[in-house]
Prior knowledge:
Largest sheet: none
Strand content: under 5%
Number of helices: 5
Amino acid sequence: MFWRAIIAFLALPGVVAFAIPLAIGLNQRHSIPLRPLSWPILVAGVSVLAWCVIEFYIAGRGTLAPWAPPNRLVSSGPYRFSRNPMYVGVALILISWAVLFSSLILTVYAAIVLLAFHIRVIAGEEPSLARTFGADWQSYRTRVPRWLF
């Protein structure tokens, strides 16, 4: 299961939060500018994302990938504060790239990705979690906000 977790991380947030934005940003600029505000945002996003992946692996006994999801409802770690902290982590990472590269294209990319996340959560993930975890999901859903508010 460990290798599935690594592959899922590289295939999903690895591409969306790192490969695509870096390809766009580095194509626009030849050197990484020093924008102090971007670095703490990037570190926060990566930290939240890594914590979520660990929680999925340890507490949920699964991965972030749809083909190997957690077997248990994860409500520990950052999932105590948000039902979707992994997406919050990716959002922070995308915002940090837009700030770092001062890129309108990366800002638009981040907005599109975040809208897609929101639609995916409402239309796909939440109904699936309700079917899979039933009363546990409903209880969790009433206690913890979808995002951070």
